[in-house]
Every structure is written in structure tokens, then in C-alpha cells.
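One example copied in:
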Amino acid sequence: MPQLIDYAHGISAIDSGYYRPMLDAIHLVVEGERAAIVDTGTNNSVPLVLDALREKGLRPEQVDYVILTHIHLDHAGGAGLFMREFSNATLTVHPRGARHMADPARLIAGTVAVYGEAPTRQMYGDILPIPVERILETPHASAIRLAGRELQFLDTPGHARHHVAIRDTRSGHIFAGDVFGLSYREMDQDGRQFIVPTSSPAQFDPAPYHRSIDLILEANPEAVYITHYSQIRDVQAKGAVLHRLVDAHAELGLREKDAGAARPERLREGVKRIFLEEARRWGSRLPDARVLDIYSNDVELNALGLGFWLDSL
């Protein structure tokens, strides 16, 4: 069985199996006899989600929506295969992402540019197109209903320009994808949760990132569900940390903007310092090496994201 965490209000987290345990969460929302899936992981996640649905007594045809917070492949790589499996479902996606779900060629090319062709194929397999007629674009303030339960979409750029967050009106909670940071459960300590932002390539932009954080904070949810990893609480305090650390990333980038060939390594080392200093500030008892091991991929991606941002200035 997949790792399945059940919360209140019919919300569950399914470990997608991506990369390592409890890195990448798929969220399941059940209302009555209908279900919605928030983000998909990769093609390899399909049997894990099917197992979770069976555990809850649900059949694939009871899934009404596959909801994407954004189209990065750790969130949307399995979307095409999910839509084949869930024959009654509609895919929802930001208007900027819809065409890439119907024709994923550019999305695949962008991922290959970051990871290389062989690793992309190994991680994601075949990225399948989705028929246009099964795609619903979800601009800011749009909404869908799951057996009468309203899910409202918020435009939340900063991590990516094609990013939405989803407010569940039944619980008041928000599904925030990547725009409300990274909070891995290995870092939990004394009931507290550590959090850092993600500036991964290629559309990091500090100003809209701050606005998106504020938009989520203004809704004052008791809980936010992020993909990396799942439910976080004490939301207002975590938003303040994210604001501070987005600024720290931007300041790092501007300091190193003209560092030439040394810039990628200087950005990487700078992101490591930000993460370690925050871990110490927060009171982590883990050794530095363990913190960097947990966030090794994110350090690299955040440094790349800063590089893309600097090149756009």
C-alpha cells in the first residue's frame, strides 16, 4: 500500500513515490461518493493512487477532477496517464499551462534542458497529451464543484507563472503546490515544521512570489497543503518566514549577478548557507550534512532558478 495520510474534511495525502519517500505528495479530496485529485506525480504514481482509492471504496470513474497546481513534471508528469485511467475526469490547469497539457512537447523540452534527456526519460517516461475537450482552464477567481463542495482557484505566480492555489470552501484550507514552500517531514522537531521557499527553474520572480504568499495569508487558512510535503499549520508564521527567505534568495542573486563563470557555484553555495542558517535559527538538531542531504536537489534547483531570474533582469 502507498503511504496514505488521512486528515479531516475528506482530505488525504498519497506519497507519489517520486525520487524518495515523502518528497512529493498527491492530495485526494473526497466528498460523498465523488473525488478530486490535486497534482499527479509521475506515470509511476497511477497504481499508488488507484490503491488509495480502493482503500476508500472508490472506483476510478468516481474521480471527477484531476487538478494541477502547475505543470512542472513532478506535479503534472502523470497527468496524461491519469486522464486515461479516470475516464470521467476533467483536468483543471492555469490558462498558461493548458496548451502544454494538450501538446507537451515544449514542456518535455524544458525539462530536458534542466535535467538532460536520459534522466528525464528515466524519471517521467512518456508524457501523454490530453484531449483539449477534457481540459478546463482555471483563471483567478474561477471555481468548480465536487458534489456541491466548492473549490476556488487563486492565481499564484512567483514559483511559476502557470501556478494556481486552490481554496477548499468546506475546510477553508488551501492546496498551494509549490508557492508556499518546502516543508519535509524529516525536518519536523518537537511538533514544529521547518519551511523554506522554492525558486526552482525557470520562472522564479520575487515580487509576484511575495504577492502570492500574501494572497494565501489573507485567506487565513488553518492549514495549507504543499506538494513537498503535505499539511502544514501555523500558517501565518510560516508565511513570514517565506517572505524573509524569498528576500534572502533575491539578495543572494543580486550580489552574484555579475560573477561570470563562477556564478552558478556561488549561487549554489549561497543557497546552502541560506538553508543551513535557517535550520540553525529554527533550532534544528540535525547535523548540517543531514540537512543538506534532505534538501540536496532543492539547493541545486533554487540556484538554477536564481540564475534564470538574473538572466531575465
